[in-house]
Design a protein that fits this description.
The protein is built from ten helices and twelve strands. The chain has helices spanning about 55-65, 85-90, 100-105, 110-120, 130-140, 155-170, 185-200, 215-220, 245-250, 285-290, and strands at about 5-15, 25-40, 45-50, 70-75, 80, 95-100, 175-180, 205-210, 225-230, 230-235, 295, 300. It starts with 5 loop residues before the first strand and ends in a 14-residue tail after the last strand. Bound molecules: iron/sulfur cluster. Iron/sulfur cluster binds next to loops.
Length: about 325
C-alpha cells in the first residue's frame, strides 16, 4: 500500500486554561489523548462526537493550525509537527482547510470569481489568464457558473460554502480538512455542499470531515472515527457495520431520545455515568481502567470493556 496521506501517531494535545483570577491556579485541559490515525488516498474520514469531544482540535492539529503536545504527525511521509511554519509554507498549498464559517472566510469586496482567481495566483502560482480559466471551470463544476460576479452578501449560504470549496478544490490538494462545512444550512443544501466537496476531491486526496451530522457521516465517509473525551472510542465503516460502543450507538440511533448528559467520569471509562452496559461484572473494570481500542476485525475497532473482541489485538 502507498504511503498514507496522513499518519497521526500517539498524538495528544493539552491546553492550559488560566484561572479566573491572577492568583487562581492554571488548569490543564486534555483535549486530545494519544490518538492514532492513518488516512490513505481516496479515504473520507468522518470525525464525529459531541461538542468538546476533541474532534475539531484533532483536525486542526493534523494541519498544524494548533501545535501538538506530544506524538508525531506525518503528511505524505514527512514529519509535519517538527517543521517550522516557514518550512511548512511551500507544502501548505497541498493541505487545505474548509472553515465552518464561510462568510467570515470571504472578502466582502471580492466576487466569487475573484476569490478563486486570487487563490490560484497567490497559492497556486498561476498567471492571471490560466488562473481565470481554471477558476471559471471549477466554479462551473460547482454550479456557480452564473454567479461569477456575485459578492458574498449577494450569495445564499450554500453559494458562499461552494465558493470556499472552489478555492480549496481548485488547488488540487492531497488533504482537505473540512470543519463542519454544512453547519447552519438547510438539509437539502447540506446534501448539495457535501456532494460538491466529495464529488470533486482529487482521486489521490484524503479528506477529514468534522461533523455533528450522523446521517452525513454514514452516507459519505469511508471510515468513521467516534470521539469522546479526547479519545477515539470506535473506528468503523458505517456502510458495512453498525457501531457497538454504547456511546456511538446512542449517537447514531436516529430514534434515540437520550444523549449522554450526566457528564464525564473522572476515572476509568469517561462514559460510565451514562452507560447502560456499565453493570456487574464488567462495571468493576469500567471504573478502574480506561478501555483501549481493540480490533474486532480489519476495519472495526472499539474501546469498551463490554465489547469483547474476537481477536483482541490493540489497534495501531
Ligand atoms: S467500558 Fe464500560 S462504561 Fe465504558 S462504554 Fe464500555 S461498558 Fe460502558
Amino acid at each position: 500500500m502507498s504511503e498514507p496521506v496522513v499518519r497521526v501517531v500517539s498524538v495528544s494535545k493539552t491546553f492550559i486554561q488560566q484561572g479566573a483570577f491572577p492568583w487562581s491556579p492554571e488548569r490543564p485541559i486534555h483535549a486530545v489523548k494519544s490518538v492514532d490515525i492513518e488516512i490513505h488516498e481516496g479515504e473520507i474520514i468522518a470525525l464525529v462526537g459531541q461538542s468538546g469531544s476533541g474532534k475539531t482540535t484533532l483536525a486542526r492539529l493534523v494541519l498544524g493550525l494548533e501545535e501538538i503536545t506530544s506524538g508525531q504527525i506525518l503528511l505524505e511521509g514527512r514529519r509535519w509537527d517538527t517543521m517550522t511554519e516557514r518550512e511548512r509554507y511551500p507544502h501548505r498549498v497541498r493541505y487545505q482547510y474548509v472553515p465552518q464559517d464561510a462568510m467570515s472566510a470571504l472578502d466582502p469586496q471580492q466576487s466569487a470569481l475573484e476569490h478563486v482567481v486570487e487563490t490560484l495566483r497567490v497559492l497556486g502560482g498561476l498567471d492571471s489568464a490560466e488562473a481565470e480559466r481554471q477558476a471559471i471551470a471549477m466554479l462551473e463544476r460547482l454550479g456557480l457558473g452564473h454567479r461569477l460576479a456575485a459578492l458574498p452578501r449577494q450569495m445564499s449560504g450554500g453559494e458562499q460554502r461552494r465558493v470556499t470549496l472552489a478555492r480549496v478544490l481548485a488547488l488540487r490538494p492531497r488533504l482537505v480538512v473540512a470543519d463542519e462545512p454544512t453547519s447552519g444550512l438547510e438539509p437539502d443544501r447540506r446534501e448539495e455542499v457535501l456532494r460538491d466537496l466529495i464529488g470533486n476531491l482529487p482521486k489521490d486526496a484524503g479528506c477529514i470531515l468534522v461533523t455533528h451530522d450522523m446521517s452525513a457521516a454514514r452516507k459519505w465517509a469511508t471510515r468513521v472515527l467516534v470521539m469522546l473525551d479526547g479519545h477515539i472510542i470506535e473506528k468503523l465503516d458505517l456502510r458495512e457495520e453498525d457501531p457497538v460502543h454504547p456511546y456511538a450507538r446512542m449517537l447514531f440511533d436516529p430514534w434515540s431520545s437520550r444523549l449522554p448528559d450526566r457528564g464525564l467520569a473522572p476515572t476509568g471509562c469517561a462514559f460510565r455515568l451514562d452507560c447502560p452496559q456499565c453493570v456487574p461484572p464488567v462495571a468493576e473494570r469500567c471504573v478502574a481502567t480506561v478501555p483501549s481500542l481493540q480490533r474486532l476485525d480489519d476495519t472495526h475497532s472499539v474501546a469498551c470493556h463490554a465489547a469483547a473482541p474476537q481477536d483482541p489485538r490493540e489497534d495501531s
